[in-house]
Amino acid sequence: MDRNLSDRELGVYPSEPPAQPEADPPGRHARPSDPDDTVPLPPAAAHAPAPAPAEPSSPPSAEARPSAPEKPAPPAEPGPPRRRLPRPQLGRRLRVLAGVDERLLDRVPQERAWYTSLGGVVLGTATIAAISMYFAITQAMGASSWLAVFPVLVWFLFILNVDRWLVSSRLGEGWFRRVPVLAMRVLMAFFFGVVIAEPLVLRIFETAVIQHVADQRTEALAQLGGRLKTCNPVPGSTEPVAPADCKATETFNFDQSPVATLRELTVRRADADALAKTIDADSVQLRAINDMARRECVGDSGDGLTGQRGVGPNCRRLRAEADAFKRTRQIDANGVKLVNLRTQISELESAARTSHAAFEAERETKIEARVAEERSHQGKIGLLERLGALHDLADSSGVLAVGIWAVRIFFILVDCMPILVKFVGGSTTYDKLVSAQLAVAERDLNHDIESEYAEREAVLRKRRAEIDLEILEHKAELNTRLHRAADRLSERV
Q: What are 218-239's pLDDT values in tens digits?
């Protein structure tokens, strides 16, 4: 460009000249040479009329001379620059989670919002996964602990990097290449979603799950108590006999058992029944003999009777037979013995009732102790119990099953969100730039490899040529030596 062109032709207009500072009137400052010590006069002195000039014969003094105009004060030196606070750069950090190259994205700044949102989706998915892992660990342990922070952090970083890999790697060009890659990634995201969604579903339905587990435990304890009671029936009671499938752990050893008392009671009852039958039979026979003697004595006629009234020989004989039968059969002694047996039976029955009560009390104590021991083994509700309870709740109610699956599918879709967003968005201009950059890098790499190969070939050819030249020189030197030796030999000859 021609340097002689005017500023107006170049479109540059001169700025206005800086305003010159006005000269202070004489006597404005006490010491005009020091601008820092200037003291302004009051307004009355400023507007006062100037003093009359001195006579020309007397030269004016230095103090009366008018002061020279002051020079403008030098501009103040700029202070140190203010330290700006670093910006959080949240968008850039979110785009890092999407695996974006900022230098390449600067060529298409219109897509920054898209990749910022994609990074936010990745971060949200990883956060939900971390929360799910925290719920899973606390549900498995049955309580919250600060030790859960370490596996939660590891799981968060793992899911974050997996989702970052899923959204940052290319899907390929064309449907035939994109569909297999997309199917593989969606399948991975689905399995991760199933693992991540289950603890969250358990957390949402925690109240119903805990109540169901508590009911199951109560029912199991009640069944255990009934089983122990069935396998340890009270001897001699109306309870059925213990089943044959009772295990050794389901039967008890009792300190007090009514078995011996019941056995003795059974023997006494049998003895009493047999003795009562004997006494009844002897009493019937004795009454028959006494009846025959009475009829003989009163003169009744009949078979074996004389029919003569009075105490005759037959009457005395029959009475003697009755007395002899009574003495021989010990009917009175047997009666006393039967009374004693019945007294013993009453005492044994009372003892058996007491023994039954003690046996039932001991059995109940042992059953309560076993149930309490089983309850102590149950501990806190774990993850497997929660999963089983959730499955039972889904089977018991269709409405609840629909709600459980709806929540589960929702969290699965949330976990699949990064790859779905990547697929729905399609290939962006940034993706095309990445593909082009990769193609250029591949082409440059191939070119470098070919160049390096060509250089190595040239070096090898040069080295071969040098070796061939050295061989020729060596042969020439050998020939020269041979010729010289031949010449010397011929000269000697």
A: 898 999 888 888 888 877 677 7
**What is the full DSSP assignment across 51-98?**
PPPPPTTSPPPTTTSPPPPPPPPPPPPP-PPP-PPPP--HHHHHHHHT
Residue 111's nearest CA partner among 126, 101, 121 is: 101
Query: Which residue type sits at 267?
Result: V
Which range has highest mean pLDDT (104-113, 183-192, 389-398, 451-460)? 451-460
**Contacts by 386-390 with C-beta closer than 8 Å and gap 24+?**
386/139, 386/202, 386/209, 386/213, 387/198, 387/202, 389/209, 389/210, 389/212, 389/213, 389/216, 390/201, 390/202, 390/205, 390/209
Q: Check residue 463 and give its pLDDT.
A: 92
C-alpha 57/C-alpha 383 separation (Å) is: 119
Dihedral Cα 422, 428, 431, 433, nearest 10 deg? -170
pTM of the shown model: 0.51
Give pLDDT tens digits for 266-284.
888 888 888 888 888 888 8
Neighbours of 46 (CB within 10 A): 11
The Cα–Cα gap between 347 and 145 comes to 65
Q: What mean pLDDT is predicted for residues 66-86?
A: 55
Instruction: Give the DSSP per-residue string, 413-459.
Output: HHHTHHHHHHHHH---HHHHHHHHHHHHHHHHHHHHHHHHHHHHHHH
Domain ranges, ordered by start, for the chain: 91-204+397-425, 238-380, 428-485
Task: Give the separation between CA 332 and CA 322, rounded to whole angstroms.
Answer: 14
